[in-house]
Amino acid sequence: MHPILAQGRLLAMYVGMWVLVGGLLGAILATQADQPWWGAALAALPLAVVYGFICLSAWYVARGMPLGATGAVRLTATTVSASVISGAGWVVVGRLWIGALASRGVLTGGARDAAVQTLIFGIGVLLYLLSIAVSYLLATFEASRAAERRALQVQVFAREAELRSLRSQVDPHFLFNSLQSISALTTADPGGARRMCLLLAEFLRESLTLGAETGITLARELKLVEGFLAVERVRFGGRLQVDISSNGAEAFIVPPLLLQPIVENAVTHGVAHVLEGGTIRIQASRRGSHLVIVVENPCDPDRPRGRGAGVGLANVRARLAALHGTEARMHTVEEGGVWRVELALPGSDE
Fold first, then answer.
1. Cα–Cα dist 93/51, whole Å
2. 83 pLDDT exceeds 60?
3. Of 71, 210, 247, 307, which is the most buried if we count CB atoms within 10 A?
4. What range does the domain containing 291 cover?
5. 164 inside domain
């Protein structure tokens, strides 16, 4: 279906434009054919609207002969032929309509003169050529928008692939560390190893459920973090303490498993290297339209720097960049025996 016919507002505007053309045609009939103004208007307005619908066929001519794929000779011959045929058809309709009005005394005999018919034919050819030109402009604009949509889809698909790749790195990294912990507990604390296996299974089940979603509430993300820390408490006992506060930001939407690599880093490269252990603090708050999350943990400045340290943090940074670009940021700092990670990302409530 023609795009103008598919939208009532566009159709009304299009008909209104041809009513204006009818007014100009009526003025020509009144002056050139010496007709009364009211009779000329009555003849020209319906005639112009009818020709407006005839000119809609120019859209299909333009669609059937794309500019880049049609030779100049064929393009010229087709457009001229279509214009002549449409103009001739308009003359036939005009003769019948003007003849009907003249027979009722609305118009005088001069309205049917050959000069008037020739003038109507010439105007019809020009208007149809103009319609074809406008149709080509619309077709070019439509093709440009379609290309933009395809380019945007390619970008979206690429971003989704990147996010899936980054997301797939989280579980193996965490699972490897957890299995190492379970292995260490099997001889020293078999009961603890069994509890850790059960908690790990529950955590992985929940992480798989949430990981299938594109976004979850901060409340669900924090609950997942608590499940992870419950696994780690089996190994660290009282050395690992947790302080979590969300300050009314629970409804913010965040990527699933965004905090888990940060908290895992806080345990593996923070609390694990401090003899007396310490507290992992997670604080979330609203700052305008942004969600700010701060994760702090004690750390030993003289701790060994493992080759794998920073993998989880790099993953989080890459995911934020892929999702929000420069609108999100991640800042890390170590000061006074405390490691601090601050996230700021735009978001909305559930």
1. 9
2. yes
3. 210
4. 189-346
5. no
From its phi and psi, is residue 337 left (phi > 0), alpha (psi between -120 and 50) or beta?
A: left
User: Of the given ranges (57-61, 260-264, 346-350), which has the lowest mean pLDDT?
Assistant: 346-350
Residues 260 and 330 in one domain: yes
**Quick one: the chain helix, strand, coil %, rounded to 5?**
70, 15, 20
181 against 99, higher pLDDT? 99
Kindly state whether residue 158 falls inside one of the protein's structural domains.
no
Q: Does a structural domain hold residue 42?
A: yes
The verdict on 340 and 244 lying in the same domain is yes
| Residues 256-273 pLDDT 10s | 888 988 998 898 889 988
Q: Are 185 and 192 in contact (CB under 8 A)?
A: yes
Residue 235 CB contacts under 8 Å (≥ 6 apart), including other chains: 181, 184, 185, 192, 196
Q: How many residues does the chain have?
A: 350
Helices (H), strands (E): how many in the chain?
Answer: 9, 7
Instruction: Specify whether 143 is located in the same domain as 193.
Output: no
Q: How far is CA 182 from CA 242, 270, 307, in A?
A: 21, 19, 21
Mind listing the pLDDT tens digit for each residue in 305-346?
A: 655 446 678 878 888 888 888 889 999 999 989 999 999 998
Q: What total number of domains does the chain contain? A: 2
Residues 292 and 218: beta-carbon distance below 8 Å = no
Tokens read off for 230: 């419950």
Tokens 């499940």 belong to which residue?
A: 227
Do 287 and 213 share a structural domain?
A: yes
pLDDT at residue 309 in the model: 47
Q: How far apart are CA 190 and CA 285, in angstroms?
A: 40
pLDDT at 233 over 90: no
Domain shared by 141 and 20, yes or no: yes
Pair 128, 207 in one domain? no
| C-beta of residue 93 within 8 angstroms of C-beta of residue 53 | no
